[in-house]
Design goal:
The complex is a heterotrimer.
Chain A lengths: L1 H37 L11 H8 L2 E5 L2 E2 L3 E3 L5 E2 L1 H14 L5 E5 L5 H6 L5 E2 L7 H6 L2 E3 L4 E3 L1 E6 L14 E5 L3 H13 L4 E5 L2 H10 L4 E5 H9 L8 E3 L7 E3 L2 E3 L3 H20 L6 H7 L3 H6 L4 E3 L2 E3 L11 H8 L3 H8 L26
Helix pairs in contact in A: 1-2, 3-9, 3-12, 9-12
Chain B lengths: L1 H7 L8 H34 L27 H33 L5 H15 L3 H16 L14 E3 L2 E4 L1 E2 L3 H29 L5 H20 L3 E2 L2 E3 L2 E3 L2 E3 L1 H28 L2 H9 L4 H31 L11 H10 L4 H30 L5
Helix pairs in contact in B: 3-8, 3-10, 3-11, 4-8, 5-8, 6-7, 8-10, 9-10, 10-12, 11-12
Chain C lengths: L1 H7 L4 H28 L3 H5 L1 H6 L7 H21 L10 H26 L2 H26 L1 H4 L3 H22 L7 H27 L4 H15 L3 H15 L8 H26 L3 H9 L4 H16 L1 H14 L1 H7 L4 H8 L11 H30 L5
Classes of the chains: A alpha/beta, B mainly alpha, C mainly alpha.
Chain lengths: 369, 387, 395
């Protein structure tokens, strides 16, 4: 009596499971099929550049997050918007010619390098600081930083703190598994402040603890703090960011070690946004400039034909990217200044060191020739 | 027939039970090895692709983080951080097991009380708590109780001026000076008490007079602690609020408090059911015999029922203790710095994930093993000696 | 009444003190709870996020498939429940039956009513009515088989397959059409729990048999697996699976969070099920095996036809208990693998811009607790009922 029932249940369950697998793996099948078709011998997946497999799959898997105001948040329709999200789109625009061909993969802070190492993402654009240890032992290759940041301290405006050095014995809250933990610990021992550094799973929990008054200070990258300050429920004026910046935090996209072609392709997608701003090319005027300009370096940059004595030619630097990748990046996403103005300026962030080198900043793209 | 009888002395190989048994086992073994090899092979292939570290050298790297409520320095190696995490796990597990056993026993007895109200409340407690996920209780303790209900440190609750309760933790009155001295005195006192009970009971067995072993034992213990207090001069210190923190007393981290309460409440509901079942398993005659020799209901419970009930309950209790220890890993979700949290942090700071988490698992396995050995020891000690 | 009070609450001075204190305490808690539920609680956060809590980001346009699946399942449950054997001599009055059903399923009905009230849409009301109607219809179909001779001729197994076909097709269809990564909320807790227990069951049976096998190597392998898994905390296993599962499987498979969670829950539950089933096997007397041998059955046949069915039947309540704890443990997938299951969403909605910092944790976690509690409590009650029905421990 009971036995056939169980058999039935087992059949039903395995059917559920199989169909479940089928549903989860539909997006992956394309990728793996592509990987297999491009690999020549039996098991040389390692030697095939991600650049080829991404182009074959037609989608870039970009490691990101979903709740950092300004950098990556979900909008009403569940789409990722923000500074980092735009760079994900820029990479897709450069590699695939389509800024929407990107799959945003939300990652916890502590999991982000593992996701890169195990190949569940192609590129990590998630507010990640470039450090020597990460370059080395996390098997990550960092590229052109898209934001130069530094760690600071945020306190309640009525706390009476006006400098980090006044915060003796304070409770400092930070995100679990980030460089901020180490920096805070280091700063505490350097200044002899005896901080109690508490690490939280995600920034939401810190926010909760901070609102409840469990933390005296919230230490993180100044850009992040500015973002959270702007979204604070009691208004930005209730919080103050102290003037000290006690670390260098170049936030850079990262790819897995040992894949130069892919690293260079991603790098140039970032650099294109910087170069475009230097040229004064925006998403609004890119078409007009492309058709009217006589400037050879701009024509090269946008992948336009350059007239010369022996006919016309398009510069192809053999990056493995389409020759008009820069045009696509600027057209579909915008230049660095546009992206910054769209997402970070509204938070109250200044360009600062993130201005072009021609404006006193440190953003400097190598020549495209 | 004749041809058969000549071969019947030698069963063919494929029908010999002994051969078949070994063949089957070898097949299983080969299958298991093949599976493990398959896993290992995948691991090697995948690891070589992603070029990440697989050995334990990360244990010697500087940890570069600090641990709240601990003078652990950020320049100390990862190894030391994991040890501190391990100690914190033991701390919460030890206190948790004691309190959960106490509360669970009380609730279990209350579930069988003759008092209708008490029984109803105990039943409601067990049925509500047992059917909720532990993580939910823990999240509730952390977000709703500690963060939202406890006051800020500026307006901390000061019950009787003995405690300081705020969302930055609890502070209790505690002894001043070295905890080890206190611990030593308490251990000596307990030892003396245990010896007294043992000796008095042995005498009572001989001459048949009432022993009063426990009462005399407690008296002796109190005398020892009191004289230790006078001679060595350890004092109470009361906690008070200073600035944005507390000074004096024993400070309990808010996450420790939340984790402890969640573990104790959850485990006690399971222990209560075990205790109830074990009390019911004690033969009715035992209780009736106790009534017949006019023991009070308290004496009946303490001297007759509970000792026998715990004999039945011991294996199940041991399982609950193991569960509590393993469940303490959930402390990581509310940032209590126990082993799992430390492992997670060090992975986030650049230690390789697979070796670090595998090491963590092994440590839990070791704790489980030791605990079950201890439980088994007591189980044997308590077991009825059958002659 | 007074006699009852005296006998049950005020037998002695100590008893009276306890009664008064407990009454005051319980009264206070109940009063606070009532006040919270009906007056101070701000339930609009649940109303607004109801869909998120129940099904996560499940696509709106496919919701009808979920609804249909629920209806088909209800029909099936109705049909199967009515086809179970009943004592024909026992005539129970309609009121008594109704009361019995209410005490068994009143909580579920109340929970359904609360959810419909919170949703406040016509669709929800229709689904509620539809579910009741589907159960009734299923019951009618089940009764019809007993009354109508043509239907009764259909073999039992085929009849069962016919009944289960509709819900199964609906569920599989839903799985195929929707993207599983968009499933969330309570739906994903239930899905993971059911899938994991179904996969863990055969594994658990083989582990249990292996542990009791007379073959030393088989026994060693099974025992070490069971003890290793039981000594490890589920949370750390999930964390490990979150970062390391892909290292141990071919790189062609890209595991999502659900795959990881189901793998770990299956491995974990199988070890515990194995111990439960082993207990069941131990409770079967040796005579059963010997009788099987006397009939000349092979060892395999003895196990699968004689001892195992009895053993499994004896430990059905314990297996349900294991399912309940698995059901509760699915919350860990949220914490360890960032899966958007019910508890995780319950936490997250209090941080939405509209509700941040307003102290609505009580409301959101309260709702989450209600769903888990009703689910677990009803299941454990049913398992106790089954235990009595099976007479385990009495015979």
């Amino acid at each position: 009596m009971k036995k056939p029932m169980m058999a039935l249940a087992a059949v039903a369950a395995s059917a559920l499971f199989l169909s479940g697998c089928a549903a989860t793996d539909t997006t992956e099948e394309a990728t793996t099929a592509a990987t297999q078709s491009t690999s020549t011998s039996t098991d040389t997946a390692a030697s095939v550049s991600l650049l080829e497999s991404v182009q074959a799959a037609g989608v870039v898997r970009c490691g990101t997050r979903d709740a950092l105001p300004g950098f990556a948040v979900l909008d009403d329709s569940g789409e990722h918007v923000g500074f980092d999200s735009d760079f994900c789109k820029a990479i897709a625009a450069a590699v695939l010619g389509d800024a929407t061909a990107v799959e945003m993969v939300d990652l916890e802070t502590a999991d982000r390098f593992t996701a890169l190492q195990n190949g569940s993402i192609d590129v990590l654009v998630r507010n990640t600081t470039w450090t020597a240890t990460r370059d080395g032992s996390e098997a990550a290759t960092f590229l052109q930083p898209n934001f130069y940041d530094g760690q600071g301290m945020m306190v309640a405006a009525n706390s009476g703190y006006s400098s980090v050095s006044q915060m003796k014995g304070a409770i400092i809250c930070v995100s679990k598994g980030t460089t901020t933990e180490g920096n805070a610990a280091l700063e505490s021992s350097r200044l002899g402040l005896n901080w109690e550094v508490r690490s939280f799973d995600d920034t939401d929990l810190i926010l909760e603890a901070f609102i409840a008054g469990q933390c005296d200070g919230w230490s993180s990258d100044v850009s992040q703090l500015t973002g959270f300050r702007s979204a604070y429920p009691e208004g930005a004026a209730a919080l103050a960011i102290l003037p000290e910046v006690f670390s260098k935090e170049p936030l850079a996209p990262a790819v897995l070690d040992g894949d130069t072609a892919w690293a260079q392709a991603v790098n140039w997608a970032i650099l294109a946004t910087i170069q475009a701003e230097e040229f004064g090319i925006t998403s609004a005027n890119v078409d007009q400039i492309a058709s009217s300009t006589q400037d050879v370096s701009i024509l090269r940059f946008l992948g336009q034909e350059i007239e010369s004595s022996d006919g016309s030619a398009v510069l192809d630097p053999s990056l493995g990217l389409p020759t008009d990748f820069a045009y696509q990046v600027v057209k579909q996403v915008g230049n660095y200044g546009e992206i910054f103005a769209r997402h970070l300026a509204p938070l109250g962030l200044e360009r600062g060191v993130n201005a072009l080198w021609t404006d006193g900043g440190i953003l400097y793209a190598p020549p495209y020739r | 027939m004749g041809s058969l009888s000549s071969t019947s002395s030698r069963v063919p190989l494929w029908r010999d039970v002994r051969v078949l048994r070994w063949a089957f086992q070898l097949l299983v073994l080969a299958g298991v090895f093949a599976f493990i090899f398959w896993l290992y092979n995948n691991y090697q292939v995948n690891i070589s692709k992603s070029q990440i570290q697989t050995d334990l050298t990360f244990l010697d790297n500087p940890a570069s983080f600090t641990i709240p409520g601990n003078d652990f320095d950020q320049s100390q190696p990862v190894r030391d951080a994991l040890v501190q995490g391990f100690l914190n796990t033991l701390r919460v597990a030890f206190v948790g097991i004691l309190l959960a056993t106490l509360l669970g026993t009380l609730v279990g007895i209350a579930r069988l009380s003759g008092n209708f109200l008490l029984r109803a409340v105990a039943t409601a407690y067990v049925e509500v708590v047992r059917n909720l996920p532990l993580l939910l209780l823990l999240t509730f303790m952390n977000l709703a109780v500690v963060l939202q209900t406890f006051p800020r440190i500026e307006d901390a609750w000061l019950p009787l001026d003995l405690f300081v309760i705020s969302n930055r933790g609890l502070a209790l009155p505690w002894f001043e000076g070295s905890g080890y001295v206190l611990l030593g005195v308490v251990v000596v006192a307990l030892l003396a008490m245990w010896l007294t009970v043992k000796i008095r009971n042995a005498q009572a067995d001989k001459n048949g007079k009432p022993a009063y072993g426990l009462r005399i034992g407690v008296l002796i213990a109190v005398v020892i602690i009191a004289s230790g207090w006078l001679l060595l001069g350890f004092n109470w210190t009361l906690p008070f609020v200073e600035g944005r923190g507390t000074v004096g007393g024993l400070r309990l981290d808010p996450s420790f408090f939340a984790l402890l309460v969640a573990l104790v409440v959850y485990t006690s509901s399971h222990i209560a059911e075990i205790v109830r079942g074990s009390i019911l398993a004690v033969p009715k005659g035992q209780g009736e015999a106790a009534d017949a020799i006019a023991l009070s209901s308290g004496q009946k419970m303490r001297l007759i029922i509970l000792p026998q009930a715990f004999r039945v309950a011991m294996p199940a209790l041991g399982n609950q203790y193991l569960n509590l220890i393993k469940n303490s890993s959930l402390g990581a979700t509310i940032s209590y710095f126990e082993l799992t949290q430390v492992a997670q942090i060090t992975v986030g700071n650049g230690s390789p994930a697979v070796p670090a988490f595998t090491l963590t698992l092994l440590v839990y396995l070791a704790i489980s093993l030791v605990t079950s050995l201890v439980v088994n020891y007591f189980n044997r000690k308590l077991a009825l000696v059958e002659r | 009444m007074i006699v009852w009070l005296k006998r049950n609450m005020f037998r002695s001075v100590g008893d009276s003190i306890i009664s008064v204190v407990v009454a005051a305490l319980a009264g206070w808690v109940v009063w606070q709870l009532l006040q919270f539920v009906f007056i101070t609680g701000r339930w609009e956060i649940i109303q607004v996020n109801l869909k998120l809590l129940l099904v996560g980001r499940f696509p709106e346009e496919l919701m009808w498939m979920l609804g249909t699946s629920i209806l088909a399942l209800s029909f099936w449950i109705g049909a199967v429940a009515s086809s179970s054997k009943r004592d024909p001599d026992k005539k129970t009055s309609l009121i008594k039956t109704g009361f019995g059903l209410l005490s068994r399923f009143g909580l579920i009905i109340a929970l359904g009513a609360i959810i419909i009230a919170l949703a406040g849409t016509l669709d929800a009301v229709l689904l509620g009515i539809g579910t009741v109607a589907a159960i009734a219809l299923g019951r009618l179909v089940g009764l019809a088989r007993r009354r109508i001779a043509v239907l009764a001729k259909i073999p039992w197994l085929i009849w069962q397959i016919l009944l289960v076909a509709l819900p199964l097709v609906m569920i599989v269809q839903t799985l195929l059409v929707s993207d599983l990564s968009e499933w969330g909320g309570f739906l994903i807790n239930v899905y993971i729990a059911i899938l994991s227990i179904a996969l863990a069951f055969p594994l658990g049976v083989f582990l249990a048999l292996g542990r009791r096998s007379s073959l030393p190597i088989v026994r060693l392998v099974c025992t070490s697996y069971i003890e290793l898994v039981r000594g490890a905390p589920l949370f750390v296993l999930l964390l490990l699976a979150g970062v390391a599962l892909e290292f141990f499987i071919p790189s062609e498979i890209a595991p999502g969070a659900i795959f990881r969670a189901v793998t770990v829950f299956t491995m974990f539950t199988a070890a515990y099920l194995a111990e439960i089933i082993r207990g069941g096997l131990q409770s079967i007397s040796k005579g059963q095996t010997e009788a099987g041998k006397a009939l000349g059955l092979s060892t395999v046949k003895i196990i699968f036809l004689i001892t195992l069915p009895q053993a499994l039947r004896n430990v059905i309540p314990a297996q349900i208990g294991q399912f309940i704890s698995l059901f509760k443990d699915t919350t860990l997938a949220g914490a360890a693998l960032s899966m958007l299951e019910l508890l995780k969403i319950g936490e997250a909605i209090t941080k939405q811009d509209d509700y941040l910092g307003q102290g609505l944790v009580y409301e959101s976690l309260g709702f989450v607790a209600l769903l888990f509690w009703v689910g677990s409590y009803v299941m454990s009650r049913e398992s106790q009922r089954l235990e009595r029905k099976l007479g385990v421990g009495i015979r």
